[in-house]
């Protein structure tokens, strides 16, 4: 009952005061959201699902969405501040398109510049598919603040972190603008051991923008932790949800990138925020999700340009190794400003300078 209470599966607060019928219905709601057989009993699959690592933000509107499979307009209704019983409230979005964020602290065993790159990439996942623009600030106030805490951190006992496993992080809906991460977890910046910080930050940023948990299993906003794979990081449900709140990108179409882009932050050899611009790794992981230009051809292949190299991402999400620009386009200068592919001529057009 404490688990179901914490994650918003009872219509009224008060653990220990629910009737057997209410408990059974809450279990069915949980099983529906997590795509389990609707037994209404604490069977082995249900107990296993409850023990999996997940986001500590409650499942709110995804209960109803799981039953009705409604469109992402469900996410216009938001829960109250953490520590209170969830209830629908108005104003679950930001009323501006340019938002600042700040990484307040981070695990001491992770390099600061790599953490900041991973966080920036997490924000860019959302700005790539919406009208939002994000800017990092290193000190002072910010619209969205990311902070690591141990245990009880004055968010209410219901939101105290529980050590390794369980709730990995939680976030507040607009316009409080806070995401908290459990310092007791072993965080990682790559696809090996530990919780992938990039994927968890990207999920919690979704909450700070006003997105509820999604009942779609493949969605980034699904409540349960998922390892970073080669598939697209954002599902159709995530994209429709954020566009429902903030609209489509101001210029061009939404850009989706596969998880392979983000799996090896630890290989990055340069600090984009410092003066160290020495040797850059030409690993197969195309950089930091910050590119000179992106365009697509008639076969829906994505061409990503950065410096003196380019990458091709097929429609299925498979990425090529880095290829020198000069090999395909002799005489083309590095660091172009823009690129477009013409359906009429079948040619690429590049732009650089004034």
Automatic annotation (TrEMBL):
Ca(2+) 3 binds at residues 162-163, 182, 185. The keyword Hydrolase applies. It holds the Pfam family Peptidase_M10. It comes from the Eukaryota. Ca(2+) 4 binds at residues 292, 337. GO terms for molecular function: metalloendopeptidase activity; zinc ion binding. Residues 52-87 are annotated as: Disordered. Residues 90-248 form the Peptidase metallopeptidase domain. InterPro entries: Hemopexin-like_dom_sf, Hemopexin-like_repeat, M10A_MMP, MetalloPept_cat_dom_sf, Pept_M10_metallopeptidase, Pept_M10A, Peptidase_Metallo, PGBD-like_sf. This is MMP28 protein.
């Amino acid at each position: 009952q404490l688990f179901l209470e914490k994650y918003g599966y009872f219509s009224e607060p008060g653990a220990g005061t629910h009737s057997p019928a209410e408990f059974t219905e809450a279990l069915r709601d949980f099983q529906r959201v997590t795509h389990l057989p609707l037994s209404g009993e604490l069977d082995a699959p249900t107990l296993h699902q409850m023990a999996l690592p997940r986001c500590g933000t409650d499942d709110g509107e995804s209960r109803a969405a799981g039953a009705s499979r409604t469109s992402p307009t469900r996410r216009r209704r938001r829960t109250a501040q953490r520590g209170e019983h969830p209830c629908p409230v108005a104003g679950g979005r930001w009323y501006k398109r340019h938002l600042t964020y700040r990484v307040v602290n981070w695990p001491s065993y992770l390099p600061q510049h790599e953490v900041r790159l991973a966080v920036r990439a997490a924000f860019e996942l959302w700005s790539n598919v919406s009208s939002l623009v994000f800017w990092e600030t290193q000190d002072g106030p910010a619209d969205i603040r990311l902070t690591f805490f141990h245990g009880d951190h004055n968010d209410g006992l219901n939101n105290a972190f529980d050590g390794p496993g369980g709730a990995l992080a939680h976030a507040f809906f607009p316009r409080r603008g806070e995401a908290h991460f459990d310092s007791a977890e072993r965080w990682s910046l790559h696809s090996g051991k530990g919780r992938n910080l990039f994927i968890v930050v990207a999920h919690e940023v979704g909450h700070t923008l006003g997105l509820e948990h999604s009942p779609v299993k493949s969605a980034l906003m699904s409540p349960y932790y998922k390892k970073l794979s080669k598939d697209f990081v954002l599902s159709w449900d995530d994209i429709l949800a954020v566009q429902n709140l903030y609209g489509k990108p101001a210029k061009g179409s939404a850009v989706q990138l596969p998880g392979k882009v983000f799996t090896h932050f630890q290989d990055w050899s340069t600090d984009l925020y410092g003066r160290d611009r020495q040797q850059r790794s030409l690993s197969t992981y195309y950089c930091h999700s910050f590119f000179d230009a992106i365009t697509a051809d008639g076969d829906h292949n994505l061409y990503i340009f950065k410096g003196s190299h380019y990458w091709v991402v097929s429609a299925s999400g498979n990425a090529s190794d880095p290829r020198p620009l000069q090999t395909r386009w002799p005489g083309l200068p590095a660091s172009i400003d823009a690129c477009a592919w013409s359906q009429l001529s079948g040619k690429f057009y590049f732009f650089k300078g004034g």
